[in-house]
Amino acid sequence: MKKVIGAAVALVMGAGFAAADPVLGTWKTEVDDGNYAHVEMSTCGDKICGVIAQAFNAQGPWASDNKGKKLVWDMVARGGGSYKSGKIWQPSTDKVFNSKMSLSGDVLNVSGCVAIICKKQVWTRVN
C-alpha cells in the first residue's frame, strides 16, 4: 500500500512541476545566421529541455533538418525564473554551450559559454 501511495504522490508532484513551471511552452529564438526557430520547452524528467518545433528563414517556415532536434537539455529550475546547469546547441556552428536562462514574464534571457566564447539571446514567448 505504501508503494501505491508513494507512486501516486510522485505522479501528482511530477504533474504539478510540469504545470507550474512558467518556462514551459513555445519560444521564438533570435535570428542566427539568417534563421530562427520556435523551441518547445517541456519537462524531461526533473529537468527542462527544448526541442526545435519549427524553423524559419527570411521566406518563412521551412523544412530544416534540425526540426525535432533538442536545442536545450539538462536545464535545472532554481526558482524565481532562474535556470542553470543546462546545455544548449547552436545549429549554425554545431557547438554545445554550458547554458543558463532567466525568465521575466514573456521574455527568456538565454546565455551559454564554451571555453571562453560566450553568447546571449533574448527569446520571446509564442504561446
Can you put this structure into words, describing what you see?
The protein is mainly β. Residues 1-19 have low confidence and may be disordered. It is globular. The protein has one helix spanning 2-20, and strands at residues 25-28, 36-44, 47-57, 60-62, 70-79, 82-90, 95-104, 107-114, 117-125.
Question: What is this structure, in a nutshell?
Answer:
With 127 residues, the protein is mainly β. It contains one helix and nine strands; from the N terminus they run αβββββββββ. It has one domain: Beta Barrel (Lipocalin), CATH 2.40.128.
Keywords for this entry:
mainly beta; 15% helix; 127 residues; 8-stranded antiparallel barrel; Lipocalin; single chain
Helix content: 10-25%
Q: Quick one: how many beta strands?
A: 9
**Low-pLDDT windows of residues:** 1-19
Instruction: Tell me about the largest β-sheet.
Output: 8 strands, antiparallel, barrel
| CATH architectural type | Beta Barrel
Using only CA atoms, what is the Rg? 16 Å
- Quaternary structure state of the chains depicted: single chain
Beta-strand percent range = over 45%
Shape: globular
What is the helix/strand order? HEEEEEEEEE
Into how many domains do the coordinates divide?
1
Ends apart, CA distance between termini: 41 Å
Please, what is the average pLDDT?
88
